[in-house]
């Protein structure tokens, strides 16, 4: 902030320098008890970044039948055990959370790539491994790959390759050239159908079960929790 800029907005935070964490090849932007947000470097004509929003794992469900057998009634002790705290029962027995909690529920992960034709370093692949949703640009179709790369952009096949390397569960394509229109808006003999971009990504991922979605304004994508398997 400079003297000429006036007072900051209520939500505005002071600027800060964020160093590159060499061990993870990423930048730590934010963390609290629910999320961690990191950035990673991308290759584009100007500096560009991607972002990984990682939810922390959640404690598993309480094994209520085991607690009943131990004579523990629903109440404050349930909450303490759920929070990972050991408790001493009336009998004097020390009860550990691991004895009465199911496996942790894995946190969800969303990765959003900015404009790019490739990644810089290994940070993106490390952070985005097994992402629930990976959002990646697909500016031009595969047949225009040379032009896309020259301008620092990607094709559906290039985006699919990133999703495959990351073992992502869902690929969301965005940042389409204006030459691509939805079927309802196409002019006869004019623009290409944007659905062809999805077809190209689907074809590149047909053997690994990654769901491909074309982004739309105001789109909402539910991301269900992944419950750990029970034996």
UniProtKB/TrEMBL annotation:
Gene3D superfamilies per the UniProt record, alphabetical: Ribonuclease Z/Hydroxyacylglutathione hydrolase-like
User: Which Pfam families has this protein been placed in?
Assistant: Lactamase_B_2
Q: Which residues form the Metallo-beta-lactamase domain?
A: 105-176
Coiled coil stretches, renumbered: none
What InterPro entries would the database entry show? Metallo-B-lactamas, RibonucZ/Hydroxyglut_hydro
Fetch the PANTHER family from UniProt. Answer: ZINC PHOSPHODIESTERASE ELAC PROTEIN 1
Name assigned to this protein: Metallo-beta-lactamase domain-containing protein
Lineage summary: Eukaryota, Metazoa, Chordata, Craniata, Vertebrata
